[in-house]
UniProtKB/TrEMBL annotation:
Belongs to the serine/threonine dehydratase family. DsdA subfamily. Residues 87-382 form the Tryptophan synthase beta chain-like PALP domain. Its cofactor is pyridoxal 5'-phosphate. This is Probable D-serine dehydratase. One of its GO terms (molecular function) is hydro-lyase activity. The gene is dsdA. The keyword Cytoplasm does not apply.
Amino acid sequence: MEIPVVKKIAAAEEAAWVNPGLRPYGEVSLEVTMEDIEDAEDRLARFAPFIVKCFPETADRGGLIESSLTPVPKMQAYLDKAYGSGIRGRLMVKQDSHLAIAGSVKARGGIYEVLKHTEDLALEAGLITIGDDYSVLASEACRKFFRQYTIQVGSTGNLGLSIGIASAAVGYEVIVHMSADARQWKKDMLRSHGVKVVEYASDYSEAVKNGRRESDADPKSYFIDDENSKNLFMGYAVAAKRLRSQLEELDVKVDEAHPLFVYIPCGVGGAPGGVTFGLKELWGDNVHCFFVEPVQAPCMLLGMATGLHNDISVQDVGLTGLTHADGLAVGRPSGFVGKVMEPLLSGEFTLKDKWLYEYMRNLLETEDIFLEPSACAAFDGPARLLKYEETRAYIREHGLEDKMKDAVHIAWATGGRLVPEDVREEYKKTCLD
Ligand SMILES: *Cc1c(COP(=O)(O)O)cnc(C)c1O
């Protein structure tokens, strides 16, 4: 391969990559639209009474599954002191790590798709009409109806948790196909919700392939397809408008003079891609979205830099795909998401696993916020945006140098709340070379 960044990532070196395909937002035309996001928002609003009934923990947000946006000035100062980040403006954390029900960003896409399927089945069977109070779907009669159906999904862990818990609440039979990277506690937690967990010795793509095949063989089974699903993507995209309200509450402006930088850990691409699409719809060229991936599993970067998307895997360039970031342990990206991201994504960072644990301890010590290792990848963005020549050039070329003092940086914290106490203790002690 002659693309320089591909050489670097094939050697498992840490890298920053700026997307040469990024276009002014006004010139971009996409297969997904703001109407798709609004359709998802409306559906989630219809389900809010049902969500409150099944998950009382969501009552104070009226059945909306939403997380806080938290300024983290002490972490910001620490990144500057310990790593010389040089970041000015304000650093914040979007705490999807603490989302209700699933404790990860998957509570957006995963639960949304389960509800979408539930609505489709319920409307078809005449259990509800669009204007009804959907809390009737939590009745014993409805649960009995849903019990005839199965939902299946392939997962490295968190998607399985989100879909497993939500589907079990509706009443479905659930089968989660888990890759070898999935952590034991995630499998145990799912089984405790009555979910059937099928374990594979192979990686994520293999788990998805098997799950898809088994589900397709059963007419009453629905497969949630993380590699291709537009529904999942829209569930994630809903985050954007809610973030806008939260920024307004904090009196933070995003416009030409006040750029917004967002850093999101990336696995197959659905979660960071959906969030990015929503943010670009709202703020266009004033928001700059970067994904972060482990050096052994930079599948989205590889797919985008080569233009091959899901036709190339990290194993094809000699990487293992193995990482402590279980949520990011994906060897082949979503082709659907990669293509949508082509004109939207600003760039990517890759990092070694050891930083996951360092950033985890840094955040815990400075701000008393716990995240799981995968989520901590987000901090590589603010830590190193100004360290790499590639991203410094991006800032210069976009005329942002003078605006950086008024910028907002959001590290998208994608998971952590459900990590059991003993596992947390183990993570806190983990030091890698
Ligand atoms: C799934 C996940 C991601 C990435 O989402 P994808 O849709 O796989 O790209 C990031 N962080 C955590 C904690 C996750 O569980």
